[in-house]
Queue: 2 jobs
Job 1
Amino acid sequence: MRRDSIFYKIFQQSPTLLFELLENPPANARGYRFDSVAVKEPKFEIDGVFLPPEPESAGIIYFCEVQFQKDERLYERLFGEAFLYFYRNRDRYSDWQAVVIYPARSREQSDTHPYRALLNCDQVHRVYLNELGDIRQLPLGIALMVLTILEEEQAPEEARYLLARAQEEVTEPEASRAIIDLIATILVYKFTNLSRREVESMLGLRLEETRVYREAKEEGRQQEAANLVLRLLLRRFGELSEPLRKRISSLPLSVKEDLGEALLDFSSLDDLLAWLETH
């Protein structure tokens, strides 16, 4: 299971969960959004960033790293990229914080000595999920994160417990649905070898009603449409270049459907390229 990607999905759905891990969360935590940011020179992208509400001037930016595999250059990369991005955007932010989430201390970079001042200051927060305590005694949001590290034998029972707890504790329907979606997402990622019906039976709910199922269905439709258009273009013009295939695959579903009809009138690859330029 790619736990870093599932955490980023969790943070996209519920950005405030990150701040439940901090002793002093910002007062405007509910206004933050989770995103990725790019630095042009030298070019790189930081995947996990929590951005303060836009109307505010010079807010605090939070860099987040979820690290489930040992990386002996993690802090070099994290601090190097964070400092450069903060430098390039100094007028936009008044301060920075960094949160690194590990399943256990054993996954942390071995040589931390060069970064001892940063790692022991109040701007950098290291979270070890296996040290947060009994999952049933934790706040619901943090319990969801701990669910990702449980063994497969224990995870289904604790997931059902958290589902029942969410229905009891969360009175707002939309918030309750968001938690149910997160639990379903975690189990779907954890048990990739199981069918949808097996996961439904494990959780006692229908995945058709959850966000993870709707997203998976949409991804399936996107892929089917891309495959169909690429097959038609292959028969018409022969093998396409890899950049052109990627460009077509990345088109929105509605545009892929339009392309599937339009390509019947193309007489050359130039027609395809001209159509793509206008769409």
Job 2
Amino acid sequence: MALLPVAEALQRVLADARPLPLERIPLADARRRVLAEDLRALRTQPPADVSAMDGYAIRAEDVTSAPTDLKVIGEVAAGRPFPNELRPGQAVRIFTGGELPPGADTIVVQERTRRDGDIVIITAVPEKGRHIRRAGLDFQKNELLLSRGRILSGRDLGLAAAMNHPMLPVHRKPRVALLATGDELVMPGQHPGPGQIVYSNGYSVAVLARQEGADVSDLGIVRDNLADTVTAIRNAKLRRADVLVTMGGASVGDYDLVQDALTAEGMELSFWKIAMRPGRPLMHGRLGPIHVLGLPGNPVSAYVCAVLFLLPLLRVLSGRSDHSIPTEHALLGSDLPENDERADYLRARLSRSSRGALVATPFPLQDSSMTRVLAEADCLVLREPHAPRASAGSPCVIMKLPL
């Protein structure tokens, strides 16, 4: 099978991905979830004309000159309306948020008044209609305020609460199952034996998935045994995973059994080699309703492939329309040689030039096993296949790495 271009590989990964079904969840749990339906206001806000200041509700026609004396006949606080209509020569003490009494059309702020018992002295002629928040100033009942596909922020939740929605319709979170394979792997804290290494891929990939709102379950490390690998895959089915992410074992060596195990379980293979570095042995397929991504075993390759392919897939499943990983322009901080037939994703540090321009300097060593370089990197420098030599200071395209 020929090496597949990165763009075509991503297109295949997303081709049959659809937003997950709707569920209704409490307002308090909905931050960063994606709305599955348009949300309309269930009420008008504010529901009536209210005072925007502490002061006195009056009839503007009663105060055409200053000072003017008015009789105070009552008080209005938020949630405690005044039941009677204001008559000529009368005023009502009112506080911010209080509903405007019938007959009143203006608020005089308390700084422009003096009080003498039940008489208020207006010391300046007010502007008619001043300091009143009109009914519906914020929004009207049935008005569309939050649209389907929106990623809900804390501010959105405040708006939804004001709209009187206790539950929100959102897309279900993607369920991701992680499966690592390899006799050489031991868990952190264990002592590696001869030829063994400490397992690290799953931790960084799990964080990426959780940052996208996915529920992640770790199926652990499976030894290089076909029966054990099949059992682990069946466990992912039992957990009703939407995405199965395997790490390692996706190539064609004698001990690379993941593809055989998945095929035995009915996976339809889409591809397993792509024209990128790091990450050439990336596998993709469908196991019934489960999207399968077989990440390479090298830690950097696994992470970079997860950023490029897993994140967009999870965003589509979550209901997001902005599934693409954004890129930016920068200047190269060092010379680069011409590229071969594979797209390069070079780990790089970011800095600013003396003129404030963004500068990306690739690390001298780009081996796909170097977790230290990956941890120190701020971004990936993207280079197309067969890109010519590039000098320091020339333009480049970067992709910032998630924190």
